[in-house]
TrEMBL record:
<dbReference type="InterPro" id="IPR032624">
    <property type="entry name" value="DUF4879"/>
</dbReference>
<dbReference type="Pfam" id="PF16219">
    <property type="entry name" value="DUF4879"/>
</dbReference>
<keyword id="KW-0732">Signal</keyword>
<feature type="signal peptide">
    <location>
        <begin position="1"/>
        <end position="26"/>
    </location>
</feature>
<protein>
    <recommendedName>
        <fullName>DUF4879 domain-containing protein</fullName>
    </recommendedName>
</protein>
Length: 208
């Protein structure tokens, strides 16, 4: 079984999520929960709006380490390449502002995390999963299968992954799943490549 854990040493943690104003969700100048950090500081576990999400980026050396050509301008040209990277990258819930695409906020999840930093729950819990390549999969929280309510198409190489523009080749997906019922617990997500390199990928996270 392949998981994102294989690639831990290659992940740029600081590039997973960028926050324009780290404490805008928490209500401005409240620093009591975050060790005295000031407004504008970026720290792991920040809740961010979807529009602030910046996808993981890799240097040429890191790409070579995970099997990509050293040229960081490399773009997948095959019409349907298999999965080569898979990761749970965000959690939203009623407690964090809801999962409405127009208003919801995220707790960012980096590659080393095994649980959320913030408590989640309420009527809706949601997750964002990054798939680089093409696969079929899903997400499960506490035995309940998630509803895939949104997909964002991604283009470019892993060093320059971005939302697609007209005419670009799709190289990955940001898939959004929601759960109605579970308030937290063990979240798992998985996918199976539909083309070479074939394989099964999975990731897991405990939601507080």
């Amino acid at each position: 079984m392949q998981t994102k854990r294989i690639f831990l040493s290659t992940i740029l943690l600081s590039a997973t999520f960028l926050v324009a104003s780290a404490h805008s969700y928490a209500g401005g100048n409240d620093t009591s929960q975050h060790g005295g950090y000031e407004v504008g500081d970026v720290y792991r576990g920040d809740k961010v709006h979807r529009s602030a999400v910046t996808l993981p980026r890799f240097t040429a050396e890191e790409l070579e380490n995970i099997g990509f050509p050293a040229d960081d301008e490399y773009v997948v040209e095959a019409p349907a390449p298999g999965i080569t990277y898979f990761q749970i990258v965000g959690i939203c819930s009623s407690y964090s502002g809801g999962c409405n695409p127009a208003t919801y906020t995220w707790e960012s999840i980096d590659a080393y995390q095994t649980s959320t930093v913030f408590n989640h729950g309420g009527s809706i819990v949601g997750t964002a999963v990054l798939e680089y390549g093409y696969g079929n999969g899903g997400a499960n929280l506490g035995g309940v299968s998630g509803s895939n309510y949104d997909i964002e198409y991604l283009c470019g190489s892993m060093s320059n992954l971005h939302s697609c523009s007209t005419g670009e080749t799709v190289t990955g997906f940001l898939k959004f799943y929601s759960f109605s019922g579970p308030q937290g617990g063990s979240l798992s997500a998985n996918t199976s490549s539909i083309a070479y390199p074939f394989g099964f990928w999975s990731d897991s996270l405990y939601i507080l």
